[in-house]
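Bug #2210: token dump truncated for Flowering locus T?
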Amino acid sequence: MASRDPLIVGGIVGDIVDYFDASARLRVSYNNREITNGSELRPSQVANQPTVQIAGLSRSLYTLVMMDPDSPTPSNPSQREYLHWLVTDIPEGRDVNRGTEVVAYESPRPTAGIHRLAFVVFRQTARQAIYAPGWRANFNTRDFAECYSLGAPVAAGYFNCQREGTCGGRRYR
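Reproduced locally. Full output below:
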């Protein structure tokens, strides 16, 4: 049921991408802990680049975009979307390290509020040159996909992150 889709409930579909039918499986793990949509991680848990695997059509290549749609704060996301990572040419079934890192991983360091960190995956029709934007703030996933003719996403996921030691709101387990 679409209304229970965690990507819709979490606002990933809507704020970042339009509704899509997932045709690949995305696995993101930090320190051997696989994230699930809406899971909560502290900045110290996401300081290092995660392990990412994409399972989909054999012999396909994928592009991974990681961004924060809540930058600098969820109540005033004036830098929406903040680009944290961009990797292209990821071979199906292989780790993201087999791809081409276009924008290096930058660990999330939210200063206020609970931030959503989203991973969006696109299937490439062929190996292509994709260039790093000149800045990380105000990245636009929809415009990026259109510019490089990537089409609709094939997979996505997200986790929540807030400043260490924050009280109130959701608690970390």
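Output looks complete on our side. The chain has one domain: 6-162. Marking as cannot-reproduce; reopen if the truncation happens again.
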